[in-house]
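User: Hi! I'm a student and our assignment asks us to look at how structure tokens line up with a sequence. Could you show me two examples?

Assistant: Happy to help. In each example below, the sequence comes first and the structure tokens follow. Example one:
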Amino acid sequence: MAYPVAKTRWHHDTARNFVTQIDYSAFDTPGRGRGILDVFRYHYLLRLLIGKSTSLRYRNSVLGWFWSYVRPTVQFLVYYLVVGQILGLHSKVPAFPLYLFSGLVLVNLFNDTMSAATSSIVSNKALVRKIYLPRELFPLAAIIGTFTHFLPQLAVLIVVSLLFGWLPSFASVGLALLGILLVVAFVMGLGLFFSAINVRFRDASNIVDIIRTIATWSVPILYTWEMVKKVTTTHHVPWLFDIYMSNPLAVGVELYHHAFWGSLPVVNDADPRPINLDWPPQFEWHVVAAIGVIIFSLVIGQFVFRRFERSFAQDL
């Protein structure tokens, strides 16, 4: 009667040894990935999310994509009439309409992508609660989807610049692309941070609205960098100007000004020559500082996103 017992023990030992020999390194822990690097692995899902965001943006809208032209046009006209005509900046800055518009389109890119990225997780809560996929796909898809609606504004800017006498060059195109790259990378870091915070604390969307309002006035589009330099020098706080110009959005706007407005013959031939036609003092260091700010925002944004994504399904 001892044989069946010994045989049973042998089977248990064999099963236990078989289980312990399984290599679990080939499996992924659910809900934990490689962060933003998984975007390249799941690029097909990214395309689907981008298509979803672009198709739903103007769903059941009469004007559809035409709204991509209407809102920035109205915004431009309001700023032009108030700042350009009433406050008189039109007489101080040659070709002021293009100076204003070339900076405004980049600020609109920042504001729109920030808003879309912040609400990306909450607006896709049905997917987040039902299946696992890299959560970073949602803010990135929102940013890219909103970027497609920036392209019509960029096309209008190019057409208006050509009417003003702008001649494209490798330098101007390179400056414009660099400006876009800086802004999109900056928004990616901020978008990761605020999209994660917004899942648990919906106050984050209100904070983003405040940031969007400040963004318009925190860069030299409704005034010139030379005005900021004069004020900080007068009040003996020149370091404030360096902090001001280290903002990636401010750097991107200046790159756009030089790519479009600064290349106009009417601006270069103006008498007297506009001071803001030159690069701001020590601008190369401001670019380096802006890149540092972008890297810092990406690191912090990814870190906070990874900490909060563990409870996305429960919080939603």
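Example two works the same way, sequence first and then tokens:
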Amino acid sequence: MANIKQLEMIVKLREEAETKAAQLMEQAHQAFADQEQQLNTLRRYRNDYLQKLTQQGGEGLSGQSFTQYQQFVMRLDEALGRAEQSTNIARQVYQQRRQGWLDARAEKRAIEVLIEREQAQQVALQNRREQHQLDEFASRSFIRRSSH
């Protein structure tokens, strides 16, 4: 019985660890979603800007305007590269935190299974004791009846 109490205490600690891991995972997921949204916004902005450049180019652009457009597109491409890198890092952090949560959940479940097995063993032991007592009682009753 003491073993179960100890395991139950460990389960409680594992539940707290699982909850903390779930919170960290959710924060990482939100950060990843934010990064991904920012990346997509930047991609749309770049595409819109290139469409505008194409439209302006069809109407005629001065060399200086074209150079300015080109330089701005290069800066957008650099920003996109940084945003993609940040998004990839955020994705990796999320995946690590998710794995941490899955590991914490598995640890808690393993201990819960140990508790269930221990409880089942205790019930089986109690049943054997009761059966032994019943058998002993029946034997004594039989002996008493036989001797009379």
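Here is something you could point out in your write-up. The domain at 2-147 is CATH 1.10.287.1700 (Helix Hairpins).
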